[in-house]
Write a structure and sequence with these properties.
Blueprint lengths: L2 H23 L5 H4 L4 E6 L6 E2 L1 E3 L4 E6 L11 E4 L4 E3 L12 E6 L5 E10 L7 E6 L4 E2 L1 E3 L4 E6 L8 E7 L5 E3 L5 E2 L5 E6 L6 E10 L6 E6 L10 H13 L4 E5 L1 E2 L2 E2 L4 H7 L12 H10 L4 E5 L5 E4 L3 H6 L14 E2 L2 E3 L5 H17 L5 E4 L14 H10 L12 H25 L4 E4 L6 H6 L3 H7 L4 E2 L11 H15 L10 E3 L9 H13 L4 E5 L3 H4 L1 H7 L11
Parallel strand pairs: 4-8, 12-17, 18-19, 18-30, 19-22, 22-26, 26-27, 27-28, 29-30
Antiparallel strand pairs: 1-2, 1-5, 3-4, 6-7, 7-8, 9-10, 9-13, 11-12, 13-15, 14-16, 16-17, 20-21, 23-25, 24-25
Helix pairs in contact: 3-5, 7-9, 12-13
Length: 567
């Protein structure tokens, strides 16, 4: 039996006992004496408004109903009785009303009359809203209980005519109109009426929605040739560009160099390995096709040099087979292999020249390219490297003949190698700008401090030194880690790059990888967390999330975003 039903049964049984209680306590049935020992008023005046009980002088009872959830163990009644009579317990004395309480009224002649006071809980009079959400917009309103207003702010381009309400009230049984789940037009203020479970208490709220001004920033996707067939045909490229345009993505970072091959015709690679372009694209130029298709729809294209200073994955690959002396060497004298990647020695001038030539080749051959991008392998080298003959000799020359520390993470040894990579990164930046001052230089490093200790990536120096136009640290966190983990990493990276540089900070978000696709709400939460921290844009790894979560992007990117100016 439910508790409420049990209470009702007990209450009924008490009423059956009341006549016996009353009859046993009456000293006599003299009418004139009875007139002098009535309860005339019984109330709990601490409530607003005061709650008055129903007095039945014939039955000798008082029933009083308090709001649902009231603590009845210590309530103080105000009691008025017949002139000349007294009441015990006295008016103003707190009592435990979680059970019935007997009050005795004594007349001036000493005759007594008992009253049984029964306190029950009524239906709640709480008509408050706790939270309201536009369910199909992933937006929570700001509720002001004083003004009874609920305000929403939606991204530029949002449709206010088809908003689905999701309303949580303080009382589950409260009635709401319009009801939760209904679709309404909030282009003008909407009144929401909540009726409390008691059926009489009402509260009205005014819902107001504003659309934010158009923003300026980067909404990007990485377009890879791994787990994606977009680059396999010109039609595939056109379809991808069309989808980016439809979902208001304004930037595509397309893979240009990986697996020791390029996705454009490259004389640099042909001179080194004899292969002009990835054989899958023989007779075509996917980079040119993408630039043309994207620019026709006002979408920017960046050439993404994915492998950077990594030679190959799984084995040494064509570059190290041709140039084994280019390998990064660890303290054991072996080729550096980290996470399956065989690495080039990024401190060796010949290797630096090779990678620089690749980048500048694109800048020269594609004067309308919007930018170039390095990532967690450019500029970079695992901190296990640097023990080759050339680097050791350079270190000795600057350290009175001392060898590099055996500890790869020795602070001074980390700093020395990172500084050399920084010098090369600044040189590359300046050479790109010399060829094409309009070409944007972007980087997507591993987060600090991990990127610095493990891969010698000192990206806050790149930003503060002015040789990185856009930085997109890879804040790759999954939904099973929770939003708090993403939030903490985001704020940590912002603090490192500095608020003064937040306008070039567009973090990388893990949105699709193999079988992993974040839950819709987590994807939305990461984007909204960026905005709450002043970050106006992000880059998604990778393009396929637009296919898997297109409905989400229609909501979070409802209108176009202006691309920033970096000149």
């Amino acid at each position: 039996m439910k508790l409420k039903s049990y209470k009702n049964v007990c209450f009924a049984l008490l009423w059956l006992l009341v006549p016996f209680l009353v009859s046993c306590s009456d000293d006599d049935d003299d009418t004139s004496a009875a007139q002098e020992r009535f309860i005339e008023y019984f109330a709990f005046e601490s409530f607003e408004p005061p709650i008055e009980g129903i007095v039945d002088n014939q039955a000798g009872t008082v029933t009083i109903t308090v709001p649902e959830g009231t603590d009845k163990t210590s309530l103080t009644p105000t009691i008025r009785v017949s002139e000349g009579a007294t009441v015990s317990p006295a008016s103003g004395e707190a009592q435990d009303f979680s059970r019935f309480v007997i009050y005795t009224v004594t007349g001036a002649d000493g005759a007594r009359r008992n009253y049984t006071v029964l306190t029950e809980e009524g239906l709640s009079s709480n008509a408050s809203i706790v939270t309201m959400t536009f369910a199909n917009k992933y937006v929570v309103g700001e509720l002001d209980e004083d003004t009874q207003e609920i305000r929403f702010s939606l991204p530029f381009g949002s449709d206010l005519t088809d908003v689905e309400l999701s309303i949580i009230t303080a009382e589950e049984d409260a009635e709401v109109s319009p009801a939760s789940g209904e679709v309404v037009d909030v282009s003008e203020p909407v009144t929401i009426t909540v009726t409390a479970p008691d059926g009489t208490t009402e509260k009205t709220y005014t819902v107001m929605a504003d659309v934010e001004a158009q923003e300026t920033g980067v909404r990007g996707v990485w377009l890879t040739n791994v787990d994606s067939d977009v680059l396999n045909s010109q039609q595939g490229i056109q379809n991808a560009v069309d989808l980016c345009s439809e979902l208001n993505v304004n930037t595509i970072f397309v893979v240009t160099y990986n697996r020791a091959t390029t996705t454009y015709p490259s004389m640099v690679m042909e001179n080194l390995t004899g292969v002009n372009i990835d054989p899958a694209y023989a007779g075509r130029d996917p980079l040119r096709e993408l630039i043309d298709a994207a620019h026709a729809q006002n979408i920017k294209v960046f050439a993404w040099f994915e492998y950077g200073f990594a030679a190959f994955n799984g084995n040494p690959g064509p570059i190290l087979n041709t140039k084994p002396e280019w390998a990064a060497i660890n303290s054991d004298g072996n080729t550096v292999v980290k996470n399956g990647f065989y690495w080039l020695n990024s401190l060796l001038p010949e290797v630096q020249d090779f990678v620089e030539d690749l980048v500048l080749e694109v800048v020269e051959n594609y004067p309308d390219i919007d930018g170039v991008q390095g990532d967690d392998r450019l500029p970079a080298m695992p901190s296990e490297g640097g023990y080759d003959e050339y680097t050791v000799a350079e270190y000795r020359a600057e350290h009175n003949g001392q060898n590099p520390p055996a500890n790869r993470q020795d602070p001074g040894w980390l700093r020395w190698r990172a500084d050399r990579l920084n010098e090369w990164g600044e040189k590359l930046y300046n050479n790109v700008k010399e060829i094409n001052p309009q070409c944007i230089v972007a980087m997507s490093p591993s987060p600090l401090n991990f990127g610095y200790v493990e891969y010698l990536q000192d990206y806050d120096s790149w930003v503060k030194g002015g040789y990185c136009d856009i930085v997109s640290p890879q804040l790759y966190r999954r939904d099973n880690q929770g939003l708090g983990v993403y939030r903490a990493l985001l704020r940590d990276q912002i603090s490192r790059v500095g608020q003064e540089n937040i306008d070039i900070f567009y973090p990388g978000v893990l949105s699709f990888l193999g079988g992993y696709v974040p839950e819709e709400q987590f994807l939305v939460d990461m984007i909204q967390e960026n905005r709450r921290n002043g970050v106006i844009g992000e880059v998604h790894f990778f393009y396929n999330v637009l296919l898997a979560r297109d409905d989400v992007f229609r909501v979070v990117y409802p209108g176009p975003m202006l691309f920033p100016s970096f000149n």
